[in-house]
Amino acid sequence: MVFAVVASGLGYADSVGRSAGLGVAYGVVLWVLLAALVMPIWLGAVGSPANPPFPNFNPQSLVGHVVYGLVLGVVFPYVRDV
Predict the structure, then answer these.
(1) Residues 6+ apart with CB under 8 A from 54
(2) How many degrees, rounded to 5, is the angle at CA 19 between CA 58 and CA 65?
(3) Where are the alpha helices (DSSP H) in the chain?
(4) Whole-angstrom Cα distance, residue 81 to residue 27?
(5) DSSP structural state of residue 11
(6) In terms of Cα–Cα distance, which of 29, 22, 30, 28 is closest to 4?
(7) C-beta atoms surrounding 58 within 10 Å
(8) From its phi and psi, is residue 73 left (phi > 0), alpha (psi between -120 and 50) or beta?
(9) CA distance linking residue 24 with residue 18, whole number of Å
(10) Which of 29, 42, 44, 65 is deepest in the core (most CB within 10 A)?
(11) Distance between terminal CA atoms of the chain?
């Protein structure tokens, strides 16, 4: 939902290339803010035994988030009006 609002608001939803670039940037932002910073704090707060170190800048996780953002950005222009 956040990506859809941002992409539509910036006018990036009409171009697959621009939407894909925004998707990659979105994936990186998700990785930095949520996966690397928020998740370790949250898992530590709930006492999870799988608590990663803070900050958790895992390159493998970055690749996954970039691929997710790229796929999201490429698919979004095609499905936004469905």
Answers:
(1) 37, 40, 41, 44
(2) 15
(3) 2-10, 16-30, 39-45, 59-79
(4) 22
(5) T
(6) 22
(7) 15
(8) alpha
(9) 10
(10) 65
(11) 15
Could you tell me if 20 and 26 are in contact, meaning their C-beta atoms sit under 8 angstroms apart? Answer: no
* Tokens found for residue 11: 């006018």
- Greater pLDDT, 47 or 71: 71
- Residue recorded with tokens 């859809």: 4
Residue 3 in this model has a pLDDT that exceeds 90? yes
Tell me: the pLDDT tens digits for 9-55?
A: 998 888 999 999 999 999 999 999 999 999 999 999 999 988 888 99
- The whole-model pTM stands at 0.88
